[in-house]
């Protein structure tokens, strides 16, 4: 029976450890059976992810998280067809924990390993199927706006394995700018959810901040951050409690500026390439303002839009497992000597 099972089912274990979330997921024949994520609260006190603490927490979390993912999926490790893991980009110490664990487990079970590019995983999160969920997926080719704490990119997706970065940030990522502006305002970390919550109660037109003029499809957010900092400094001279009195309007105006910068370039790409299949991915795709903008643009420009479920916007192993599944079908395996990498494009 065991041999028969191997022939019939393709079962992939995905492992994600690129930053501060340890995650494991199981996908069987393209359907997600489990997706377990262990976050790390330890970084909140420092206002950002501390790499050394992150890798230690991954070491503590990886075994229980994988165990729980297999348990929830109702799968034994002997039934696995292959192990997919995030090889990069990300924090080197964090990646090494996931990569080393995947290598050890794959070798002990004598099954193939599949290395996954973290950014490719975010894009392919749109193809995660749940047993009872509707499977609405983008049609190739589509354009994907990938926005997170570390990346802001516009990607032309021609197939599962053929992706081209058309534009990207030349300095800070959108999520990074939000986190830093939240820190400047003394609101805490991570800034994304805090700014999102406050922005819902504020006036997006209350303040204007400088928008960059970058040629082509590339982004820049460092100028906006500087403009935000200098504006606050001037306002605080007149009113020491300015931030406290105006934080909702500040958050709403900041969010509106970032969303406008993101959407204007995305619109340019869709018009130039005559593509109406448009997706968004990455942690910042959980932002309410950005999601609303996607719906507005869809109506105005007749886009077919694809917005991932909240659980698949941030780092998770389901996106690594589905990417691994597609690579498994192509027999695109990875040798055990492949190292982790901290920086790389698509």
How would you summarize what this structure contains?
This protein has 346 residues and is an alpha/beta fold. The protein folds into two domains: 2-133 and 313-329, Nucleotidyltransferase, domain 5 (2-Layer Sandwich); 142-310, 2-Layer Sandwich (Nucleotidyltransferase, domain 5), CATH 3.30.420. It has helices at residues 2-8, 51-73, 92-109, 118-124, 174-184, 191-199, 222-238, 242-273, 288-301, 317-329, and strands at 11-16, 22-28, 31-38, 82-88, 113-117, 129-130, 142-147, 152-157, 163-168, 277-281, 304-306.
Apparent shape: globular
Strand order of the largest sheet: 5-4-1-2-3-6
At CATH level 2, the architecture of the largest domain is 2-Layer Sandwich
- Report strand %: 15-25%
- Helix fraction? 40-55%
Largest beta sheet, briefly? 6 strands, mixed
- What's the number of structural domains? 2
Note the run of SSEs as H and E: HEEEHEHEHEEEEHHHHEHEH
What is Rg?
A: 21 Å
Number of helices: 10
Mean pLDDT: 93
Structural class: alpha/beta
Low-confidence segments: none
Give the termini separation.
40 Å
Would you give the CATH topology of the largest domain?
Nucleotidyltransferase, domain 5
CATH superfamily of the largest domain: ATPase, nucleotide binding domain
